[in-house]
């Protein structure tokens, strides 16, 4: 079946793109469009054309699968050139979304008309590339260099109303898009209105420099951001045909880069996640009211996430001061949104009307889902769940926000463990996209489906984990941190390891993270495992020594680093170096120098090995979910793809050789995983 449908409305050709679900600009779509434009040119009865999308959208992007292959002809620049060179006007009628190549196609037409609410944007930079079909040349002719840098380098999506103000679209209509597009097309008969013929607006050099610096900082100086800025600036410096050729060459180079492949890997992993989510919606239980137990930072963050998603929320804490502070955090969050202009007064009032709180357990009796977010102590959680079980209605689902505790043991404290699941949020819960949904031994399919549906409504990226110590993310992170501690004993220092991993792209190094979250959190976890730890396994005592010395991180002014009261920056502390060197000496380890590449490679190999263990043990059944978790919850650089992507890029033979060497230097207790599971 053709992806392009053509019919005539008197003297106007109507070209409908019909490639559901998003009308992706595939080779077949491009070929059909080119054929339609040629027919328009040759048919004497036709005087104009309208290009419109079938279904719910215009063209919401290109077929990204094509980017990993040699691009099939005709390529998009050829189609746009045909539209521009056609003697008859072509109007683009936009609804739903006009993104990426779809937006570039629209910019190649003589006029653009949009249905109210349509989204427009060039998100290519988020996939490691740049617009490659004239986006960096035509958009600046409409909005100027400075605004183009802002829009293209951020991958921003703008609404049709804003696009109208910027002069990107000619008209915005409330309804009857095609009818209005036909009127516009007929009004243009006998004339062309090509963007390429518009003179470039004069830009302010200082403003352009400021916009470039801002974009580079936000885009972490990635190659595609630098290239996008250079191409946009070419719109002022070069004749358009030359600039278009340079843009296309840059696009093609970036398209096959390892970074672009890594970003496409993340894109497809997340898209698969949402396909799985949709299939669970039918089984999900309806939720209207959410109760959150515990008004600390995490509990209030979860409350905000639920409120913003449209739920009625009850916050419960029996400590009146904690409750007061939690309520204040929620109210201040929405007031800050109001003051920044991100929310209207009406929206804030409506949200806070759905928010209630109290210290009496009876307030949770009507809740459909109750989420426990109290102190990470198994006895405390047992006590809380026993009370939840008593006061919740029989149909309510009960969830724990634990990071690593045994949820099956927690569920056992309830009369109906089938309604218990884990919902592990990441801090700050109102911001972080990742959520781990923990499937306990007795969690019902309905409870699991409801958890997934709930996460989807919150706008989160949910990954499913079996109940296992640390689940997915913390299990990998623990192995990673342990490997970094091994390197401390062997000769590296915290600042070296942090610097190497931050240079690789991690948001923060592991020791800076430990100081931020508090060294006592991991210490408490290690103490809980002490009785079951094999005394023959390698164990690094450096973090314990720091904790015993009262160095618990930022909150007390000292951890792996010092934090002077009069400074926001961390400071190196010779005391820490002395503790580390003493620990090496006590074990008879002769310290040696480390370089950044060795540090990064050992960390990546450790993560890969742990992912293979998780798959082999059935903690997760989807390898790519581990990459989603690390990128969205642990600061792993998105443009590096994740451990699974890296493992597959290495190939199994080289990977196994490197892992054997890692096992050798890691010592007793490091268990080599079967890497076959990564290559299935």
Protein model, in words:
This protein has three domains: 4-255, 2-enoyl-CoA Hydratase, Chain A, domain 1, CATH 3.90.226.10; 287-471, Rossmann fold, CATH 3.40.50.720; 474-678, N-(1-d-carboxylethyl)-l-norvaline Dehydrogenase, domain 2, CATH 1.10.1040.50. Helix content is 49%, strand content 12%. It contains 27 helices and 17 strands. The radius of gyration is 28 Å and the shape is globular.
Outline of this structure?
With 680 residues, this protein is α/β, with parallel strands linked by helices.
The helix/strand class is alpha/beta
Quote the beta fraction: 5-15%
**What's the N-to-C terminus distance?**
34 Å
Corresponding CATH architecture of the largest domain? Alpha-Beta Complex
CATH topology assignment of the largest domain? 2-enoyl-CoA Hydratase, Chain A, domain 1
Rg is 28 Å
Q: Would you count the extended β strands for me?
A: 17
Please mark out the parts with pLDDT under 50 across 5 or more consecutive residues, or reply none. Answer: none
CATH superfamily of the largest domain: 2-enoyl-CoA Hydratase, Chain A, domain 1
Counted by DSSP, the helix tally is 27
Quickly count the domains: 3
For the record, the CATH class of the largest domain is Alpha Beta
Average pLDDT across residues? 94
Strand order of the largest sheet: 12-11-10-13-14-15-16-17
The biggest beta sheet reads:
8 strands, mixed
Label this structure with key terms.
alpha/beta; Rossmann fold; N-(1-d-carboxylethyl)-l-norvaline Dehydrogenase, domain 2; globular; 680 residues; 6-stranded mixed sheet; 8-stranded mixed sheet; 2-enoyl-CoA Hydratase, Chain A, domain 1
